[in-house]
Amino acid sequence: MRLFVTILLFYFSMFSFEVEASQKEVEDFDPMDMIMHHIEDSHEFHILSYHNSAGEKIDIALPLPVILWHEGGFHFFMSSNFARGEEIISLNDSDEYIRLYHEKIYYTDSSGRINYDEQGNIANSKPLSFSITKNVFSLFIGSLLIFWIFGAAARKYSKRGGLSVPKGIQLVVEPIILFVRDDIARAQIDKSKADFFMPYLLTLFFFIWINNLVGLIPFFPGGANLSGNIGFTLALGISAFIAVNVFGSKEHWQEVLTAPGVPFFAKIFLVPVEIIGLFTKPFALMLRLFANITAGHIIILSLTSMIFIMRSIYVAPVTILLSLIMMSLEFLVAILQAYIFTLLTSLFIGMAVNEH
Asked: d(Cα 93, Cα 190) in Å, to the nearest integer?
């Protein structure tokens, strides 16, 4: 509970700095703009904003590397060169320029003009980007944490033996590994085949869980909405799609493509449904994780915004209490979504590789 309260109070202090800066620039506080600023990806880690005694706005942020592919070559520079979209950057001293607009990099002219089509969408093309954004940086942090956790546990096992009483990091890791093995993998997949998928399922569980936890930390190096990024969950859905279909048994593909034992008139409808199901299952996994994590961030930020929308200190106690409850639930959701994603992936694998 002390941890939740500490994180929440720190979160409120960081949030209040940004709101103070926003209110000095605009007449009314825009909660939608503030929420989208927090949950969207960006090319820098924004820490806080405030005004000094002279009334100047001071932004404290960590710029991240920008890596672009243009005309057969890479271009490397820091995101601070964009000056938050105010600077136009020339590529190879040519007539092609780029600028940062709403955290996206677009080709533009020397004036930095952004064009729109008839539907109101941005018509400017975008260069191929391999940039280290806030979400990518958070991904590296989560990966390093996983390597550190499992590396430390593995070293202890190698020194003390696998049959010794677990100590230290082993006390945390071993029960979770056994849970994933016995209650997720072996419960859904034949025991003769479950251990083959254990490295993937175990990595999947910890990868989602730890990145969810890192995203709940409201200060650097946390705060990135990685699991709320559709590209991240798409990659996880594709990995599940590959694991299910590449290792699917011959009987699995016979049932999908021929539906044995079913009348011919039913096969006309059943086979297309089964084929579509191959794609809708990983799509559902992708969408479920994305929606649940993003919704949690939006709810907490919306509750926090109530103080500044109503501009009353009397709303603060209720808002803080509700935000504390939501923050506590988000810690539960972090592991629950990792469990659900891993469980359903294991279930789909089991349906594809198990005996007929």
From this structure: 61
Pick 29 or 250 by higher pLDDT: 250
Instruction: Give the C-alpha separation, 212 to 13, whole Å.
Output: 22
Instruction: Tally the C-alpha atoms within 13 A of residue 324's C-alpha that lie toward its C-beta.
Output: 14
Say whether 53 sits in a helix, a strand or coil: coil
CA atoms within 13 A on the CB side of 247: 21
User: What pLDDT is stored for residue 22 in this prediction?
Assistant: 45
- Residue 165's closest CA among 155, 154, 173, 157? 157
Asked if residue 221 has a cis previous peptide bond (ω within 30° of 0), the answer is yes
Alpha-helical (H) ranges within the chain are: 2-25, 31-39, 134-160, 169-179, 186-188, 191-216, 230-246, 250-257, 264-310, 316-353
> Do the Cβ atoms of 349 and 198 come closer than 8 Å?
no
Nearest Cα to Cα of residue 354 among 278, 202, 251: 251
Q: Give the tens place of pLDDT for each residue, 245-284.
A: 999 888 888 888 888 888 888 888 888 998 999 999 999 9
Dihedral of the alpha carbons of 283, 285, 287, 288, in degrees to the nearest 10: 150
**20 to 34, 48, 318: CA distances (angstroms):** 12, 10, 21
Average pLDDT, the chain: 83
Q: Is the pLDDT of residue 314 over 80?
A: no
